[in-house]
Amino acid sequence: MATLADLTAGQAFMFVAQVTAIDTAGTHLSLFGPASAAGGTALIAPGGAMSGQLTAAPASIPVTVVTQFETVSAGDVLSNDVTGETMVVRAVTVQADGSYQWSPAPAGGVVYKTDGWTVIAHVDGL
Fold it and tell me: What whole-number distance in Å separates Cα of residue 38 and Cα of residue 41?
């Protein structure tokens, strides 16, 4: 499992942010890594400034490294690089290893890896 200390410039990782309170100071967040591991706390002030603290040293904070930001999004029209088949993306999920899968069905159902598919267009309103 990767930790914050393992990351290099340009890498991306996921934290889940849970809103724990909203008051005159701003929006208070608890940050979590994989398996609900506590990662830290943060405060977003009404003016947009963000501050916070990790729960431990970076080498002790597990993270899920994602290979890239979402490569496809709902409404993208994809073409299969081998068959030429086309489909519209209706749902996207991030896997535990940081890779992405997509589905032509809003509820998931049959899913595909992004490898071997190329975005050729986008349809708004999905």
Answer: 9
